Amino acid sequence: MSLCGKEKTGLALSQAEFDRMVEAHGPAMYRIAYRMVGDQHEAEDVVQDTFRSAWTSRRRYEQGRGQRAWLASILRRRVIDRWRKPPRPTVFASDTPIEVSVDGIDPLADEYTDEMQQALDRLPTELRESLLLVVVGELTHQEAADMLGVPLGTVLSRVSRARRRMREFLVASIDQ
């Protein structure tokens, strides 16, 4: 029996719908996470945390709402949570260098350069976040504005300023 007729029955997302969502938006979520945290393994962890959170909160998903925007808002919160955590201490068993064979393949090597990541890292958080949501996450400016809780004009301005600063950073790195 429902309380005041407001209790929901069933899930807002079925397992099959959730699986399709992961398949459709997983690559974009990874690209956003990778550019926000700058590390392949951290990005993978953030995306896993994002999908875990999405699954556990699937009852609150509103059908018809943009799936990518919903996932990006969860991902953003997971990244912020990681930024707030103190960095893990590096512990070495000895003073000798550790040699580990690593593949070193950047999954986005054809799209982004180290210079691009360095330029992104130099942007203020609000500019970087807006740019990544719109450009890498492929959200509309309005979806990004709704997710960030700011007016549309603010997102438009932030993305424009972020692009301009990125160009300035990249031109400066070429001149050096």
Structure description:
With 176 residues, the chain is mainly alpha-helical. It folds into 2 domains: 9-86, Orthogonal Bundle (Rna Polymerase Sigma Factor, Chain: A), CATH 1.10.1740.10; 112-176, Winged helix-like DNA-binding domain superfamily/Winged helix DNA-binding domain (Arc Repressor Mutant, subunit A, Orthogonal Bundle), CATH 1.10.10. It is 63% helix and 0% strand. It has 7 helices and no strands. Helix 1 packs across helix 3 and helix 6 crosses helix 7. The longest helix has 24 residues, at 152-175. Residues 1-10 and 100-109 have low confidence and may be disordered.
Query: What's the helix-strand series?
Result: HHHHHHH
Broad shape: globular
Assign the structural class, choosing from mainly alpha, mainly beta, alpha/beta, alpha+beta, or little secondary structure: mainly alpha
Number of domains: 2
What is the number of strand segments? 0
Q: What is the CATH third-level topology name of the largest domain?
A: Rna Polymerase Sigma Factor, Chain: A
CATH homologous superfamily annotation of the largest domain: RNA polymerase sigma factor, region 2, helix turn helix motif
* Helical content (DSSP H or I, runs of 4+): 55-70%
The helix count comes to 7
Low-confidence stretches: 1-10, 100-109
Query: Which CATH architecture of the largest domain would you pick?
Result: Orthogonal Bundle
Taking all residues together, what is the mean pLDDT?
Answer: 78
**In terms of quaternary structure, what is this?**
single chain
